[in-house]
Task: structure prediction
Amino acid sequence: HSQANGVPYKKPFFESFEQAPLYIAVLTYMGYGIVTLFGYLRDFMRTWGLEKCRAAVERLEQTDFVPLYQDFENFYTRNLYRRVSDNWNRPICSLPGPEFDLMERVTDDYNWTFRYTGKVIKNVINMGSYNYLGFAENDEKNLSTVADAIERHGLGLCSSRHEIGNTEVHEELENLIARFLGVESAMAFGMGFATNSMNIPALVSKGCLILSDELNHTSIILGARLSGATIRVFKHNNMKSLEKLLRDAIVHGQPRTRKPWKKILIIVEGIYSMEGSVVRLPEIVALKKKYKAYLYLDEAHSIGAIGPGGRGVVEYFDLNPADVDVLMGTFTKTFGAAGGYIAGKKELVDYLRVNSHSAVYATSMSSPVAQQIIRVLKCLMGLDGTTIGRQRVHRLAANTRYFRERLHQMGFIIYGHEDSPVVPLLLFMPAKTGAFAREMLNRDIGVVVVGFPATPIAESRARFCISAAHTQEMLDKVLSAIDELGDFLHIRFSRHSRS
Amino acid sequence: YQYLLVTALYMLEPWERTVFNSFLVSVVGMAVYTGYVFM
Amino acid sequence: MNSRGIWLAYVLGIGLLHIVLLSIPFFSVPVVWSLTNIIHNMGMYIFLHTVKGTPFETPDQGKARLLTHWEQMDYGVQFTASRKFLTITPIVLYFLTSFYTKYDRMHFIINTVSLLSVLIPKLPQLHGVR
Result:
C-alpha cells in the first residue's frame, strides 16, 4: 500500500476474519435445516389444532382486517428464537457495570413464558454491555454535578432546542465536545439512533448519492432511506469496492439523466459492533479527497473507546479531524449516558441547528444526562485535575489486547481488529450459541450471543465487550471459563497455529 | 452432547428429539437391512 | 445462497435424501431415483417459488414480503452464480434419474413434468410474474 507520499497507516493495521473449516459450515446448515423442518412440523400442528398456539395471532373478529401479525415473518421467532430465548433480554437489576445482578427466572413451557424464582444471581461478570471506560457507575462522589443538574433543571426539559429546551448545560456540553474532538462546532441530540436517522435526511436529499458500508447500523440505513437519496452499498471495509462505486458515480452520474450527483456522501462507522472491525479511515479519507466526496463517520462505538486520548478512530490513525466532514457519535456506550452528537465545521452545525428534525421537534437532552456527559468529557480531557480518564483509556487498550491474544492462543476464531474492544468469538452452530450463553451464566458470567438473521447464517457468535473496569481477575475468570467451554462444546475452530 | 449440539437437537423439545432419533434409527436400520439383502 | 459451503450442503442434502430412500427395502432403484427427483423438485418449488416473504423481520419496510425466495436472491439480479447453480442441479438430477430409470416411459413423463415445474419459474421473463 505504499503511496507517493508514504503509507496511509502509521502503525500496522491488523484485523482477521478467519474462516472455519468447510465441514463446520455444512453442519451449521444441517442444524438450521433440522430445526426449520421441525418448525414446519410445529406450525402444521398449530394450524390443525394439535398444539396450542402461544404466539400472538389475530382474534377471530379480526381475521377479515389487514393482518396485524405477519405469520411467516415470525416463523423464526416462533420456531428457532423461542427455543433459546432465555439467553436474551435477561432481567438485570443493577447498573450495567463490570459486574451486575440478575433476577433468576425459569420457564415451564420452553421459554414461552417465564416466572421469577425470587432469587438474585449476584455479581455476574458483565461481558455484554458497551461500558468501555467503566463510566456506568453510581457512586455518590462522582455524580455530585449530575445531582446538582437535577436540582437546577429537574429530570426532563420537555421541549425542543428551538424553544425552552435550550439551556446553558447544552451549550457547555457542545463547546466541550467540539474542544474534545478538535473541530469548530458540535451539536448534541437527545437520542443516539435519532442522531443518524434524523440528521442524514437534513444533509442529503434526492439527486444525492450515499455510499454506505454493507454492515452499517440500522439508524444509518433508516436515515439514508428517509433522505430520498440514492443508496449504493459497498462491501464491508473494502476499499476497492468503495473506489469502484466512486468511479462509477463520477463517470456515469445519475441514472437516466446522466447529470452529475449533487453530493456524494460516504457513510462508515468507526468500530463495527458486530464484527469488531475498525474502519480503514486513512484510505477512505484519501479516496474522498481524490473523488471530492463528503465523509460521514459514525463513531458510536469508537468514541472514547479507541485512540490514545479516547478521541476515536480519527485520533487512533492520527488524522486531522477536519478531513472528516461530519463527525457523529453517541453517548450511550462509553459515556454511560444517552444521546448523540454531530460535530464538524461551524456552518454545518449551524445549518443542522436550524434544519435538523431533532432540533425542531424532539425533546432536547435532559440536563442530568448532559451533565453526566460533561463529567466524563472533563475526566477524559483531564480538566477535572485527575488522570483517571487517560488511565482508563490505557486500561481498556491493555485489557483488549490481553483478552484478544489469550483467546487467539486458546484456538478460538475471533473477528476484527486487534485494538477493537468489541471481541466477537465465532460459535457457528445455532445450538452451540444457546449452550454457550447458558453455560457461561452457570459460571456467573453474562455474555451476549448473536445469531441469524442478525449475522450471516453460518456465523453465529458470542460478542464480548471489554471494559476498563474489568479487573485482571475478572478477565482471567472469563478466559478460564471460555477455555473450559472450548473443550466441553468443541468450539476451538481456529486452524492458525497457536502462538 | 456433541451430537445434540451439532444436529441442533439441543434446541428441540424431548419429544421432538425422540421423533428425530427414531427416524434416524429406522433409516439406519433399513439401510443395514437393504445392504444385507443386496449383498 | 452465496454463503460459504451452502452449495456443498445442498448437494449433500440431496445425497442424504437419496440414501434415505435407497434404504427402504421395498423400493426398486428406478423408483428411488424418481422419488429423489420428485421430492427434490417439490421441495425446491415450495421453498424457492411458493413461499413468499422472509421467515424473520427485515428492515426493508416489508418490500420482500411479496417476493418469493428466488426473486429475493441477489436483490433480483439475474444470471448470478447462485441462480445458475440452482438451475443446473435439477437438470443434472433429471439426467441421472432418466439414466437409472432406463428411460422407462412412465418415469420419463413424470420426471420431465417435475423438472419443468422447477425450471419454468426460474426463467428471467417470469421474474415477479403472478
Summary: Chain B touches chain A through 14 residues (CB under 8 Å). Chain B is about 75% helix and 0% strand. The CA atoms of residues 14 and 25 of chain B lie 16 Å apart.
